[in-house]
Each structure stands twice: as structure tokens, then as C-alpha cells.
């Protein structure tokens, strides 16, 4: 399969929402030699990487006659807020199963999910029951009259890898349009599916730079990337080096602190970027600290801004102290 055929296959697998998933790149004001890919502009309410993954899953569901989806996640999850918007858009029946929140006040994604989900289509599970949620959801799906599937937490499933591949394809199309070659690519990861799809695509086309992944939660990106290569029918050698980094601060998933809030303010005022405290603020902070030791003279890098700016709404109390 040549690159043209590969790109066409990826487009076919991710065009289920009616448009091509393309976003622009531009140089950053605050960090020389670094470009930002604006996947945050793909959708107002759905982060770019999640939009790509869900588009790939919608294609798969349609091909297999799925009528209903059970989506799992925390009630403050960007993932569930993204899913419900798209389920309404395409008219797909759904239920969201949420882990019970320990937060008393309803704000941020918790409030958005309450706004979006119809009464009777959201179920809360206790923290004690949550480890069994996947198994219980699969049993419940089997009992439904219409074909029903379970969407794993964070869309952590093989078919979603096509979404990450579309991001790799799009970035290299940006690169060609700007007549440049990136030496380093930086992105964040939760489940790691988006990063794994990106890695599989970069290996497939022989990209020889470095993919840096700031890992917000434990995930096995290389194993998933190998699955992505098999989806492509390829047994490629790893031309693209993968480097995993921990966030520079607030390393526990979902954690934030003063440094994160200061970084949100910094990038808003210097680059005009709206970052969220859970993923993108930690990504950009970590990249800023890594750059002096990574970029050699003449090299350039790209950082993926996946979006999620709506999540700021749940952190105004902390963020307000820095304004």
C-alpha cells in the first residue's frame, strides 16, 4: 500500500461525520522553532483527538449495524461530553454509565453532561462497583433487542486507532504544504490510542523524527501502535522513535496545581491558546521545559493542541487567583 492509498483508506475510515478532519498549523509566539497544530479548532465542544477517534468508531458501528452504544467514563470526563454531542448529532441511541463523583457541586464537564444527556440515558455507578462496569455493561448490551455495543472508557479500542492515524496523516499534509520537515512531534495521551495511531501512521510512511508523548495516565502506546500497523496490513520497522515523558508537574491523572494554572494564563496571553488543566496545559508546560535539551540547531518541532478548553469552566475558582 503506497502513501496515497494509505491516506485514502484513513480518510474513508474517518469521514463518517460528513467532513474531512483537517486542521491548520502555525508558528508559536512564545516558543521559537515550534509550530502548533490546531486540532482544538476541529470542534467547539469536542476535543480534536476525541473527534477523530469517535469518527472512526462511528464508521465501524455503521458498517456493523450498531443501533445503540453504552459509553463508560467519569462524570467529569471530556470523553463522555464529546460522545453525547456526537450521538445526538448522528441520531444514535445511547446510554452513559458514569463513575459516581466525589464532588458535591455540579460544574465543568459534570454540568455539561447533565445538560446534554437526556433523562433516563445516564446511569451512575458507585466507586465500589466501577471496576466491574465494563463486564456489567457488556452483559447489559447482550440483553438488548437492538444491536448494542460498549464503548470502552476513553474509546480505548482497536477501531479508534484510525482516528490517531488521521492526525498523523493531517500533520504530514500540513508539513508538505509549508515545505518543511518536523524533527520532533509532541502530543499528550490519556488512553494512548490517539498517540498509538499517530505512531503507526508515522512508521508506515517512514517518518524518521521523534514522537514525544506526555503520558497523563498509564498506557501501553507501543503495543497499541503495533496493533495499528496490523490494521494497515503492514509489518513495518519502527522508523519513528517514541519517547514517553511524565508531566512536568501535577503528575497524578486529573490533578492540577498553581504551576498548571499559571501556564494556562501564560499561553492565553502570549499565544492566544485556551488550554485545559488536565491535558493540554501539562503538555505545553512539559514541552517548554524539554525544548532546550531536545531541539538541535536547525531543527523544528510541532505540538498537537487537541482542545478541551471547555474544561476550564470547572476550574475558575483556582484559575481566578492568577488573573
| Count of domain modules | 2
First and last CA, distance? 52 Å
What is the number of strand segments? 10
CATH A-level architecture of the largest domain: 3-Layer(aba) Sandwich
User: Cα-atom Rg, whole angstroms?
Assistant: 19 Å
Q: Which range does the strand content fall in?
A: 15-25%
Shape, principal axes of CA atoms: globular
**Computed structural class:** alpha/beta
In N-to-C order, the SSE pattern is HEEHEHEHEHEHEHEHEHHEH
Helix content: 40-55%
Given this structure, which CATH class of the largest domain is correct? Alpha Beta
Q: How would you write the strand order of the largest sheet? A: 1-2-10-7-8-9
The residue ranges in which pLDDT falls below 50 over 5 or more consecutive positions are: none
What is the tally of helical segments? 11
Provide the residue-averaged pLDDT.
92
CATH topology of the largest domain: Rossmann fold
Q: The biggest beta sheet, please?
A: 6 strands, mixed
GO molecular function, one term: D-cysteine desulfhydrase activity
Domain Tryptophan synthase beta chain-like PALP: 32-306
Keywords: Pyridoxal phosphate
Protein name: D-cysteine desulfhydrase
Amino acid at each position: 500500500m503506497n502513501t496515497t492509498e494509505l491516506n485514502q483508506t484513513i480518510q474513508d475510515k474517518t469521514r463518517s461525520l460528513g467532513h474531512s478532519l483537517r486542521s491548520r498549523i502555525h508558528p508559536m509566539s512564545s516558543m521559537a522553532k515550534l509550530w502548533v497544530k490546531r486540532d482544538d479548532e476541529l470542534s467547539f465542544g469536542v476535543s480534536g483527538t476525541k473527534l477523530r477517534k469517535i469518527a472512526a468508531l462511528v464508521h465501524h458501528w455503521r458498517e456493523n449495524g450498531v443501533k445503540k452504544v453504552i459509553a463508560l467514563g467519569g462524570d467529569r470526563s471530556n470523553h463522555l461530553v464529546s460522545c453525547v454531542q456526537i450521538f445526538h448529532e448522528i441520531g444514535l441511541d445511547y446510554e452513559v454509565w458514569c463513575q459516581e463523583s466525589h464532588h458535591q457541586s455540579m460544574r465543568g464537564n459534570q454540568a455539561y453532561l447533565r445538560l446534554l444527556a437526556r433523562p433516563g440515558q445516564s446511569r451512575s455507578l458507585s466507586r465500589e462497583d466501577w471496576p466491574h462496569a465494563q463486564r456489567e455493561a457488556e452483559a447489559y448490551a447482550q440483553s438488548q433487542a437492538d444491536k448494542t455495543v460498549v464503548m470502552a472508557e476513553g474509546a480505548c479500542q482497536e477501531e479508534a486507532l484510525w482516528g490517531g492515524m488521521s492526525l498523523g496523516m493531517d500533520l504530514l499534509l500540513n508539513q508538505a504544504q509549508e515545505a518543511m520537515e518536523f524533527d520532533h512531534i509532541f502530543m499528550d495521551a490519556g488512553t494512548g490510542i490517539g498517540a498509538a495511531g499517530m505512531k503507526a501512521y508515522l512508521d508506515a510512511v517512514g517518518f524518521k523524527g521523534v514522537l514525544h508523548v506526555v503520558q497523563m495516565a498509564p498506557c501501553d502506546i507501543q503495543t497499541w501502535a503495533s496493533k495499528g500497523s496490523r490494521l494497515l496490513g503492514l509489518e513495518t520497522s519502527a522508523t519513528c522513535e517514541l519517547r514517553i515523558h511524565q508531566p512536568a508537574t501535577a503528575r497524578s491523572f486529573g490533578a492540577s496545581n498553581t504551576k498548571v494554572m499559571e501556564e494556562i494564563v501564560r499561553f492565553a496571553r502570549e499565544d492566544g491558546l485556551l488550554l485545559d488543566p488536565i491535558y493540554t496545559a501539562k503538555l505545553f508546560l512539559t514541552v517548554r521545559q524539554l525544548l532546550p535539551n531536545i531541539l538541535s540547531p536547525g531543527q523544528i518541532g510541532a505540538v498537537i493542541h487537541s482542545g478541551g478548553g471547555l474544561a476550564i469552566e470547572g476550574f475558575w475558582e483556582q484559575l481566578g487567583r492568577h488573573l
